[in-house]
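Question: does this match?
>
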Amino acid sequence: MGYNQRTTLMMPREVVTPSIVSQSAMRACASFDLIPMHTHQRHAKIDLPSDDQLGMIHSSRIVLVTGASGSGKSCRLRGIAHALSALGTLSIHVVEDQGIQNRSGRAMIDLLEGSFKNRVVTLAHAGLAEPALWAMPPSCLSVGQRARFVLAQSMHRMFPGDVLIADEFATTLDRANAYSLARTMRRWAINRGMTLVAASAHEDLEAMLEPDLVLDMNTGQSRPPRALVAEPIMIEQGAIADYQSLAHLHYRGPKPATHTLILRAIRTTPTLGDLLAGVLVVSMPTLNGAWRDRAWPGFFSSGSKSSNAHRINTYLRCISRVIVEPRSRGLGVASMLVRSYLCSPETPATEAIAAMGSVCPFFERAGMTPYCLLPSPIDLRLIDALTHINQSIVDLIRSPVEPGSLIERELITWSKARRIIGSGVPDAQTIQKLAPIAACRLLAKPRAYAYVNNQGDDGDDAEQRD
């Protein structure tokens, strides 16, 4: 090379950082032909979308920003938020884990506002359909649960037309839970008229979320989504072992009555294979169901007890348990199980009782008719006793039962009427245990459900032959 020949110099690349550049940092970066340069600018870098991309985002309901770690997804999300805010017509909500620890003493469900039902629905859509978690403060949640709660907080503040921007969407979750969250969030955005802009480095999230638009940071291009890779759910006849494997997830302690049929839901996942997603138990009905007259007037309540018992055992079955494995909640598994049974029921009439029917109306979604249950006379008697001494039902959980008090006497009467205890006087330890049992029963707002299989023998035909 001659002395006067022009050369192209390969200069080290500058890396701008708000940190003070130490000798160690300079030495470490220089080894890789990088020179760190300190800047007083502490705002995070933003990468604005093109006008074409902004138009596509504006007309989409689900947008996924994907790419390898470090490809610029977060910068692009900040650019999208900035560009959409500049339009002045949209309300932008960015999911940020800030301030959650400052209020860690409050229960998760108390950190959301509005009606109880709306709060529960939001938590369920955010992948937190687990009642045992609702009373926990965020500081006691796992990393994945806390990320979903932060997501729920942003969701709960939104209105139709708003935009939710979520970085590292479902990153901390196992893939079975990630699939459930993606499906429930997609349904939430579409049904509520929201826009979800999510970013993730997980390649499988595109198939889970089914976005309308994909911004691929690996290529710098926008594109339509690839073909959906579904996780099929199959309903088939199961065995008692299937129920026993999920029984610990049910919140009511007693075992169901004599079972006559068990259905199970099998979910096939790409990474974990087949999972037992849920189970449904069909049992013989109890003989004392006063609410049945509202669904089948007079048919199960004739003048003869033996005739009533015969009709109940012959023409009626009860769906006594529907349990869904936590990672599969929000996918419609419960409704699928009920709908599958109702397509080919064992008897013309089917009933069910759900303590949380008003919050989780999957029986209604499956086609059953709901009936709100009025408090029984024995329940009203205990409630009246609590009112008389200025106590709430919640106080029954927290306050010890005083020996010889009105509440002690009414608790014993209530428990015997409910057949929780037998005859005789229970000891002091048993009485204290009765209080929270009664409180949980009184606080629940159960619903009864009824269904008649019109494809086969209905109640009228059954009555004519009886």
